[in-house]
Amino acid sequence: MTALALRAPWLARAVQSRDFVPLVVLTFTALLVIAPLLMILLATLTPEGRAAWEAVTNSPLSRNLWWRPLGNTVVLGIGVTLGSVLLGGFLAWLVVLTDVPMRRFLAVMSILPFMTPSFASALAWSTLFRNERIGGQAGYFASNGMSIPDWLAWGIVPVMIVLIAQFYSLAYTLIAASLSSVSGDLVESAEMAGAKRGRILFGIVLPIVTPALISGGMLAFAGAVSNFAAPALLGAPVRMQTLSTRIYGMVQTGNIERGYVLALLLMMAAAALLYFSDRFVSGRRAFVTVTGKGTRTKRFALGVWRWPLFVLATAIGFATTIIPVIVLFASSMAPRPGVLFSNWTLHYWIGPAGSAIAEGQAGIFRNPQLIDGILTTIRLGLTVALCAMVVGLLIAYTIVRYKASPYTRILSQLSFVPLFIPSIAMAAAYIAMYGTSLGPIPALYGTFTLIVLAATANLMPYAVQSGRGVLSQISSDIEESARMTGASALRRMWEIIVPLAIRGIMAGGILVFIKIVRDLSLVVLLFSASTPLLSMIAFQYASLGFMQFANAITLLILVICLLASFLAYLLQNKVQKWKK
Amino acid sequence: MEEMMTAERPAVDTSEPALAIRNLHKRFDDVPAVTDVNISVPPGAFLVLVGPSGCGKSTLLRMLAGLEPPSDGEIAFGGKVVSNGRSGVIHNAASRDAGMVFQSYALWPHKTVEGNIDWPLKVAGWKREDRARRIDEVLAFLDISALRQRYPAEISGGQQQRVAIARTIAPQPRILLLDEPLSNLDAKLRVDMRSELIRIHRATNATSVYVTHDQVEAMTMATHVAVMRAGRVEQFGAPDELLLQPQTTFVATFLGTPAGNVIPVERAGDQLCHAGVPLAPAALAGGRSSAQLLYRAQDITIGRREGCPVMPASYTESSPIAGQSMVTCMVGDLRLTAMADGFFRAASGAPVEISFLRTPDIVFDDDGNRIAR
Ligand SMILES: Nc1ncnc2c1ncn2[C@@H]1O[C@H](COP(=O)(O)OP(=O)(O)OP(=O)(O)O)[C@@H](O)[C@H]1O
Ligand SMILES: [Mg+2]
Prior knowledge:
The structure holds two protein chains of two kinds. Chain A is mainly alpha-helical. Helix content of chain A is about 70%, strand content about 0%. The longest helix of chain A is centred in the first third of the chain and has 36 residues, at about 60-95. The model of chain A is unreliable at about 285-295 (pLDDT under 50). Chain B is α+β, with helices and mostly antiparallel strands. Chain B is built from ten helices and 20 strands. In chain B, a hairpin with a 2-residue loop joins strand 9 and strand 10 (about 230-235). In chain B, helix 4 (about 115-125) packs across helix 5 (about 130-140) and helix 4 (about 115-125) runs parallel beside helix 6. The radius of gyration of chain B is 24 Å and the shape is elongated. Residues about 1-10 of chain B have low confidence and may be disordered. The interface of A and B includes residues 12 and 483 of A. The site of adenosine-5'-triphosphate (ATP) has 10 residues of chain B, from helix 2.
């Protein structure tokens, strides 16, 4: 450093400036997040790209390519948003603000659905409600002589239901957190003023939780419009296309520029929506009265409604978590969808090829791709969890420790951008960036590396968020006292910060692991034969109509996620034994 | 023991100041935190930075530690420049040979007491045997050998403090920096630790810089004191010098137990008067029409004394101190501290008379700067 200062003082100054580290990390983050977006934009400015713009936005094709999928996507988004906020809000109200029995149980039940991937619920739905419309085996109800109308078996309605079943728990989490910050004093003072219960709920409580309602709705909307699995399984077979399935279809059929154009449009639509809702929310922030310290909540007495509401809430929880898993399991054991609960066989798991059931298909464990798929999936999960946490910790560290730099603010905003880039659009962008060789970087299309890169960028917000939570609990004194010893930044990170942060890092890592292991929308474009992933194998089985196989693999994914969580839990109790 | 602590020290060049701060500035986004500080102390000095909260003491100390680059000016340790605000030269802590004890102790919670002391030595590249020997040495020196295998969460605040000091002195820094190390201890422990710190300072032979806002700590421990106010050094010198020859009213009223009384006076004829009572000859003010006089508590007494200026006042409170009473009373809006013999107490607001026993020898102008004579 000294020698440097003497030879190139400006460089030394730059390195020591409080902007140096933020700027380096910002550049790196921009490479991960912004560069692919720029590349996708550039790719649509070539002659082929311009033709694709023309075809998508202004041609006889554009109705099918853009307008109808857009319409479906928007309807889906709005429906899912309303459904999630209503359902999540109802449960949050019940759990936080009333004297409903077994509150903790209901709270756990309401969080669980977020753990079930949307393709699991979509497959379960299909197993139950599928009808003969597109051929293949009919589902449970249809096989048992019930007539299932098309609108209930296929298309936007089931997709919406499946997505609401997942996203209401997200809305629940946000709204419940916000509701528990409504202090009992506030409610009681309204009661003292003589306000009736409904008046208190709508006049006092609701305005306070409005920001949470809106951000819950926003996230549900963003999740719904970018979801791929549900519309691909339940909508695409009957030509109900959303933008995600359209992008997939375009890339799949070699119309890659059209896919890029659609991805860009989808991102712009998401960005516009988020911009407006954010402005709407910020205008209302004034209402948020978070006192921080021990808020005591006032619980309303439900009277005779206590048990009926409890049963309703439990039913919602069961229908969205337990039942899908039971259906998947039963279906993977039952010889035909019509008889889910008898004559169980292990054929779909380990049966040999050429037998009478399942058109001679062998069980999944006889599929040579499967073992490979399990290993690749776990390897992907671990690699992405590691990469995302390293990147997340780096960014979080910069954000927490270099607060003063203006670049830090940009960095912290940029690190959340991926949250609002639909995964499938992110995947398209990564193909645009690395699909062909780029200077010294070889073409990465179809490689494991590309999936890791894209997934790291895609999951960065979660990693950064958990990193920030962890780091903000380590005082800067602790780190400065390490700096005083003369230890290098890397050594400080490795020997002081990481050991202190390990619990939080692992919690973040497991979240990332689970998200990527059960992801479909990101890997569906990036996947190749050399990188067989469980979710993709399940998707392929499902596309061919072999629901039982798909269900079995989905169960396998759930088991991997559960095992990983459990392992992390065990490990967490092993490390940090110094913590009392 | 004490020899052992110093045995390995290379000879110190005593011709250079151990610590020299020249024209040092620090601005945070153009808001000055430290302004034009100049301090220089010889090897072995115990420099205390004292001043009210927010005056820039910690910022100055952090610049000495190399944790904060100066905006301008430079810092030299033993004649070697370690920070320069212009050229951007910053030596890291290891190469500037300084150790710091943090106010929060900042022990690494995932390392044992031993591990906390060991790590800096490991980073500095000490050999295993040397480290083991040195750890034994400092543990014994600070009397915490029994705590060796405990984690920071398992020992008391006072013990944590000792570990923090042990950790800092283990690599034998030439400069020891301490940021309000005693402020988290209870009153009794604080007094004990004061002498302990002096012992450590002597034994390590280091030059220490000690930050506090407690002027008693400053006066009891320091060989050199810098009184800071709003980012500037108000006065720098030996403790007795600051006490006997304060250069500003701020220093006069900040230091001393009890602190000095500064009484504003107006010239009336050939006398300087406060509230109409003549206190001193006008010549003291050097021709000014108004000035401020420094009276120490022992210069003012309760009751009427023959041949002394007497002023009516109202009693506020009193506390016993060394067989006398330290009495606070008000003259108008002016709060004065006086001494009374024995145990003196009166009803709150009761009228008392105070006598000024001596003609003051220290006089300030209206801006609070000492008038030279
Ligand atoms: N990182 C920073 N960014 C901006 N301003 C700062 C920063 N650190 C300190 N300051 C400001 O500089 C001034 C001096 O702060 P400093 O911490 O040195 O005071 P102090 O004398 O140590 O006070 P205390 O006795 O309360 O510890 C304060 O006004 C503070 O707000
Ligand atoms: Mg301070």
